[in-house]
Design goal:
Elements lengths: L19 H7 L2 H4 L11 H18 L5 E6 L5 E5 L9 H6 L22 H7 L1 E10 L2 E8 L2 E5 L4 E2 L5 E8 L12 H14 L4 E4 L2 E3 L5 H9 L9 E4 L3 E7 L6 E6 L2 E2 L5 H18 L5 H5 L2 E7 L26 H19 L1 H35 L6 E2 L16 E6 H11 L5 E6 L12 H5 L1 H10 L12 E5 L4 H17 L1 H5 L3 E5 L3 E4 L4 E4 L2 H11 L4 E4 L8 H7 L5 E4 L8 H9 L4 H10 L1 E2 L17 E2 L1
Parallel strand pairs: 1-8, 12-14, 16-17, 16-18, 18-19
Antiparallel strand pairs: 1-2, 2-7, 3-4, 3-7, 4-5, 4-6, 8-9, 10-11, 11-14, 12-13, 15-17, 19-23, 20-21, 20-22, 24-25
Length: 634
């Protein structure tokens, strides 16, 4: 009888120990999140930049240096120079290449720092094909250069320098770890630097010569985010030693928050934001002696909250969400501390500013009135939807949803399609586990400027909102990704625009939280007897033609309905191409919708004329028609 082998090959040899750089390069997602190409603000290259800038800003927070210079070259090489104390010259290697090493473990040196675990700079080093750290202290300098975490040059002894004290870090993201076409989008970085300036009044940041500086901090933040939209009342500003809050109400729908911990933009909120949302409802109920509904109090609020805590516990290395059960080393409950501060300070403020208290009350009552006005319509719509569910063929649901605890909840997707032919192809080729389909009848209503009543009066809009479970709030959203799958023609583009208008008008958090995407489908199918290549643009088409030969068969897809289900499954699989719907910098929702969906203004006409481009003549094979000379596309 043969000797049994260890179960499934699991032996002592299976246990491996990796050094710091190997572990970071093997599991980069643990340290920087998504390894995207830079097209999304949450992509890892921006985490690399933030890790470096965070250290520079921490020097300012501790009272050393009031400027940070950032230069990004065309080859995506980044240089960050601060004017703080400079890393101790004898500790450059430890700070750049020894995990869990740094000054921020010493709470007396960095009391309110974000970078507490000694990992950030090491992750940048390990994931860069070039990394250099240089420090200047007391007229002396020293530097070390790395390649993917391995030392390539080390200045053994310090040299004389006339430069001011501080630290300089240079890095270039590694194209072995990131996509080869990885690139920084400057508008994302500008927004990042604006937040740094708003959180650190008096600090000057420069990006390739462009300056970012704030005088009034969170007040400047809210003014910038509101743009030309008028607040319902003057911004309420509450500040303490460790907590700073500013908020007002606008005219739109939804809730818009900007939350920060030790200067770190916690885009997913956490303990501090949850406490603020609860506290403002609690105080309004107490002050006005009425049990307002939370949505009536917070509807159309725009707020910023910044807290400073010792040893913050984030839910991941990317630091976008403060731990839900965060406790400080001194035993203080942060949630209770924030709630107590806001209720107490807001109560004092409202008693001292009767005009603001009245305006806030009027806004809450207006929200309440609108909610009650549509309650009857809402009830009728729900009853109609309940009766229609048996016969409604518009939604083909999936099994896994975003509002569950399923491990694959992030994969839950809703495709919004135009017409039965397109939805038929997607329905037959989708993954029924996590992909749902909602079919539109045709062009939806342009809801710009309409009230929320239209969500319930328009059957299609209501069924869609009901399917997504976002009638009342975003917390029960059933699908992580809402994907607009329309034809790439004029009608398809118009439907996309109308649907984006619907989301921005009534459910802007869907866009703010990056849930809405546009599906990119191929324009051409290129094939010979051995290979088939799908091309999404003319450049890819030409590359495919060069590879397959001039006799390759070329098919031009004019609509999604022309793509067979067998082919479509490749375009909505794990590697499907999506373009996120993003808010442009320095534009409010009202300004944007007015420009694109309002009356046909001279400004919009001028924009269209300036941005028209003439495509070169498109020629297909002899079996296809030749496109007109000079096809014009907006």
């Amino acid at each position: 009888m043969a000797t049994p082998s260890p179960a499934h090959g699991y032996t002592e040899d299976s246990i491996k120990s990796l050094d710091w750089r190997e572990h970071i390069r093997l599991r980069p997602g643990m340290y920087i999140g998504k390894l995207g190409d830079g097209s999304l603000p949450e992509d890892g290259i921006y985490v690399l930049l933030k890790e470096v800038v965070d250290n520079a800003v921490d020097e300012f927070v501790m009272g050393f240096g009031n400027a940070v210079d950032i230069v990004i070259g065309e080859d995506q090489t980044v240089t960050v120079r601060d004017y703080g104390r400079g890393v101790p010259l004898g500790k450059l290697m430890e700070c750049a290449a020894q995990i869990n090493t740094g000054a921020k473990y010493d709470s007396e040196v960095f009391k309110r720092s974000v970078g507490l675990n000694g990992v950030g700079i090491k992750a940048v080093n390990a994931l860069s094909e070039f990394f250099e750290i240089q420090a200047v202290r007391d007229k002396q300098t020293r530097s070390i250069e790395f390649n993917r975490g391995l030392v390539k040059y080390e200045m053994k002894s310090p040299r004389a320098s006339d430069e001011p004290d501080g630290t300089r870090i240079v890095f270039q993201p590694d194209r072995e770890s990131f996509p080869k076409d990885v690139h920084f989008r400057m508008d994302y970085i500008r927004e990042m630097l604006r937040f740094y300036s708003w959180l650190n009044p008096g600090l000057t940041l420069t990006l390739n010569g462009e300056r970012f500086r704030s005088k009034d901090g969170l007040l400047d933040l809210l003014k910038a985010k509101m743009g030309t939209d008028a607040p319902q009342y003057p911004i309420i500003y509450l500040a303490g030693k460790e907590i700073e809050v500013a908020f007002t109400h606008g005219e739109g729908y939804g809730e818009e928050y900007f939350s920060f911990v030790n200067g770190q933009h916690t885009t997913q909120g956490g303990t501090h934001l949850a406490a603020f949302r609860e506290a403002i409802v609690q105080e309004c109920r107490e002050f006005y002696k009425k049990q307002f509904e939370p949505n009536d109090v917070r509807g159309s609020i725009i707020a910023a909250i910044s807290v400073k805590v010792q040893e913050p516990v984030f839910e991941s290395q990317t630091k976008t969400k403060l731990g839900s059960l965060h406790m400080e080393p001194n035993g203080r409950n942060l949630r209770g501390h924030v709630t107590s501060f806001i209720t107490g300070q807001l109560d004092n403020f409202l008693h001292k500013h009767a005009d603001v208290a009245k305006a806030l009350q009027e806004k809450i009552l207006a929200n309440e009135k609108e909610r009650k006005e549509i309650s009857g319509i809402q009830k009728a719509a729900r009853e109609s939807a309940r009766k229609a569910k048996v016969h409604n063929k518009k939604l083909r649901d999936c099994r896994i949803h975003f509002d569950t605890k399923d491990k694959d909840r992030e994969k839950s997707t809703l495709f919004i399609t135009e017409g039965d032919s397109a939805s038929g192809s997607i329905t037959k080729s989708r993954d029924v586990t996590c992909q749902a389909v909602f079919s539109l009848r045709g062009k939806p209503l342009n809801c710009f400027g309409l009230s929320r009543k239209v969500v319930y009066e328009n059957e299609e809009f209501y069924l869609l909102a009901n399917a997504m479970q976002i009638e009342d709030n975003m917390e029960d959203l059933r699908y992580n990704r809402i994907i607009l799958a329309t034809d790439a023609d004029v009608d398809g583009m118009h439907i996309r625009l109308l649907m984006i208008t619907f989301f921005l008008q009534f459910f802007p958090d869907l866009v703010r939280q990056h849930h809405v995407h546009i599906l990119q489908t191929p324009l051409f199918r290129m094939r010979n007897k051995k290979e088939t290549i799908y091309c999404y643009n003319d450049e890819e088409k030409q590359i495919a033609l060069n590879k397959l030969g001039k006799n390759a068969e070329i098919t031009r897809f004019k609509g999604l309905g022309e793509i067979s289900p067998d082919e479509f499954k490749h375009f909505i699989g794990p590697n499907m191409r999506l373009s996120p719907v993003l808010m442009p910098e320095s534009k409010t929702i009202h300004e944007m919708l007015t420009f694109y969906m309002g009356k046909n203004t001279p400004e919009r006409q001028g924009y269209i004329v300036e941005n028209l481009r003439v495509e070169p003549e498109l020629r297909f094979n002899e079996n296809e028609a030749t496109a007109p000379q000079g096809v014009i596309a907006a």
